[in-house]
C-alpha cells in the first residue's frame, strides 16, 4: 500500500517541484504525493501543485493567533487526509510539539546547511548562506533530517556537500546548494522512508 505523502510549503516550492519531478520519473518508490499544504495563500508552490494535479490547501498562518493554533489545524487536516509522511519543503512556520507528537519520526525537513552548522531558530533561507560565507567555510551543503521538538535538531537522514567558492554571494551559494544538494537529497530521503528503509537508532539513522 503506497504511503500517502503531504508536502508543506510557504514559498517558491522548488523542493516541491523536485519531488514532483522525481515522482514523475518513478523515483519515489512506495509513496505518492497526495497533498500540498501552504502557510501562505499566494505561495507559487501552490501553482506547482495545481500544474501537477495535486490537491493544494492553504492553512494561512495569518488566520491563527499562534504557531500552536496553526499546528493543530495542520495536524487535523493531515489526519483527515490519512497522511503517512509529512515533508517540510521551504516551510517557514515553526511547528509546535503537537505536530511531532502526531507524526513521530514521520516528518522530514530539508535544511540548506550541513547540520549542526548554521541551523536553529532564525537560521533559514538566505540567512543560512550569509552565515556560512561570513564564517569562511570551504564546504557547505544540505541536510535532510527527521523533525523533532528541537528546531533543526532531529536525527540526520542524508547530507550532501558542495564547495564554497571565493567569489560566492549568498544567492549564488544558495542556488548551488539547491541544485546540487536539496533537489537531490529530498526525493532520495522520501523514497527511502516510503520503502521503510530508514531506521532511527537514538540520534542516528541507519539506512537499510
Ligand atoms: C530554500 O532556501 C530551501 O533551502 C529551504 O527553503 C527555501 C525555499 O525552498 N528549505 P523552496 O524553493 O520553497 O522549496
Uncertain segments are none
Structural class: alpha/beta
% residues in beta strands = 15-25%
- Number of E-type strands: 9
Q: Largest beta sheet: what is the strand line-up? A: 3-2-1-4-5-6-7
The chain-level mean pLDDT equals: 97
Euclidean distance between termini CA atoms: 19 Å
What is the overall silhouette? globular
What is this entry, summarized?
The chain is α/β, with parallel strands linked by helices.
Task: Give structural notes.
Helix content is 36%, strand content 25%. It has helices spanning 14-24, 44-51, 67-80, 97-102, 126-135, 170-194, and strands spanning 3-9, 31-38, 56-58, 85-88, 107-111, 139-146, 156-163, 198-201, 204-207. The protein has a seven-stranded mixed beta sheet, covered by helices on one side. β8 (198-201) and β9 form a beta hairpin. α1 (14-24) packs across α6 and α5 packs across α6 (170-194). The longest helix has 25 residues, at 170-194. It starts with a strand and ends with a strand. Bound molecules: 5-O-phosphono-beta-D-ribofuranosylamine. Residues 9, 11-16, 45, 89-90, 110, 112, 125, 174, 178, 182 line the site of 5-O-phosphono-beta-D-ribofuranosylamine. 5-O-phosphono-beta-D-ribofuranosylamine is lined by residues 9, 11-16, 45, 89-90, 110, 112, 125, 174, 178, 182.
